[in-house]
Each structure stands twice: as C-alpha cells, then as structure tokens.
Amino acid sequence: MAWHEIMNLIATPIQQLMHIPEGHKFVETLGWQPGIWGALFIVVACLFVIPAKAPLTDLEWMISGGSAVLGLVLAGYEVHRRRNRTVLVKTGGCIAVFRNGRHDLTLAPGEINVEKAGIVIMLKIGVPLGACAAMFTAIGVIGILRDKAVNADNLIILSLGLACGASLVSAAWTRFSCVHLRVPIKGSRWLAEETVLIPTFRLNELFPV
After folding, report:
1. Per the structure, how many domains does the chain have?
2. pLDDT for 150
3. How far, in Å, CA of 184 to CA of 195, rounded?
4. CB atoms closer than 10 angstroms to residue 203
5. pLDDT category, 60, cuts 50, 70, 90?
6. Residue 163 placed within a domain
7. DSSP alpha helices (H): ranges in 24-89?
8. Is pLDDT of 159 > 70?
9. Is 208 helix (H, G, I), strand (E, B) or coil?
10. How many CB atoms lie within 10 A of CB 153?
11. Is residue 59 part of a domain?
C-alpha cells in the first residue's frame, strides 16, 4: 500500500487503523508494572480473608478491602492501557500518531525525541527493587521453612518479594530492549507529550539513517 493511500485512510471519518499494513505500524510496547502490583494487592486481600479461622477485625477488613480495591483498579488500568495502545504509523516522510484507535496528529520525525537512558536513574530504581526482592523473598522462604507451615504472613512477605523481582525484570526489559520516544499530545491540558516505547530493533525502520 502506497503512503498516499495510508494518508487517505487516516483522513477518513472512520479512522481505519486496522486496514493499515502491519509493516507501517509501530505499536506501543508496554511493561507490566500496574498488573504486577495489582496482582500483589489482590493476593494480599485474599490472604487476609481466605485462611482466617476467626472473624476479621474492622481493621483487617479495612486493610483487605482497601487492598482489593487498589488491586482491581491497577488490574483494570493494565487491561485498559493494553486495549488502547498508542500506535505510530510511518507515512512517507511523516509519522501519524493514533491514540485510542483514532488518528490524533501527524508529525515530522524531528518532532519526536528519543529519550536517553540515564544510568543514575536506572540504579536508583533497580538497586532498591533488587534489594527488596532478595530480602522479602528470603524472609518469606525462611519463615516457611522455620514454621514448617505455609501461613498468610509468610505468603504475604514472599509475594512482596516476588512482586519486587517481577517489577525489576519488567523495568529492565522495557529499559534495555525498548527505545523510549517522547511523542507530543494534541490538545491535552495536562501533558504536552507522552513516552511511547517501541522495540529497539525497529528504530531504524521508523527513523531511517
């Protein structure tokens, strides 16, 4: 399909993103941070309620209920953002930006900036997550081995360690295997631009050298 045909599709009242060839589309890559922490809060809520042998106190119900609500909100956000990924479409010498399945704006390549990975920021995020993952996982496993039983407290601590480890893996994957692009947003009152991740190996397709 020629680039002028793609432009015609973009200009139609119904924004037919599905009809644009896959080779011209750069679908946003996403990590799993909201899903990871949403799953953790849901697990914590369940571990407060399911193994309880006595009626829960008001405080325990508040913690369990709050954790469940927060977990469901994060899980819902994860589903929502995956169903509404930003898509960049290469159209000749320009790049069309689709948001929520509809054409938002068309940019020149120079209007999209590549965000450089800062080693200091990476260490500030990675070191604490790695330390927490190792510490909480070790405490949870030691508690289970010491008590010779699997109880809610040990499982919550172990779940926290596993969530930190999964979060670290997700952060490392999105940082090292993806390029972070700063893409302007049309008509937003809150954000002038957003970060859009695409696989590193496709960067030269979007911005030919």
Report:
1. 1
2. 79
3. 9
4. 16
5. confident
6. yes
7. 33-49, 58-83
8. yes
9. coil
10. 13
11. no
Q: Mutual orientation of helices 33-49 and 58-83 as an angle, nearest 10°?
A: 150
**Would residue 187 count as lying in a domain?**
yes
Identify the domain containing residue 160 by its residue range. Answer: 112-200
Please report, for the chain, how many H helices and E strands are present, in that order. 6, 7
Q: Give residue 116's pLDDT band: very low, low, confident or very high (50, 70, 90).
A: confident
* Token pair listed for 163: 């969530």
Average pLDDT in the 157-180 region?
95
What Rg, from alpha-carbon coordinates, does the chain have? Answer: 22
Closest to 15 in 3D by CA, of 78, 89, 83: 89
pLDDT at 14 over 60: no
DSSP string for 79-134: HHHHHT--EEEEETTEEEEEETTEEEEEE-GGGSEEEPPPHHHHHHHHHHHHHHHH
Residue 156 has which token pair? Answer: 């919550």
Question: In this structure, is residue 139 part of a structural domain?
Answer: yes
What is the reported pTM?
0.85
Determine the Cα angle at 192 with ends 189 and 193, to 5°: 135
Confidence of residue 13 (pLDDT cuts 50, 70, 90): very low
Q: Measure the CA–CA gap between 38 and 22, rounded to whole angstroms.
A: 32
Contact (CB, 8 A) for 173 and 142: no
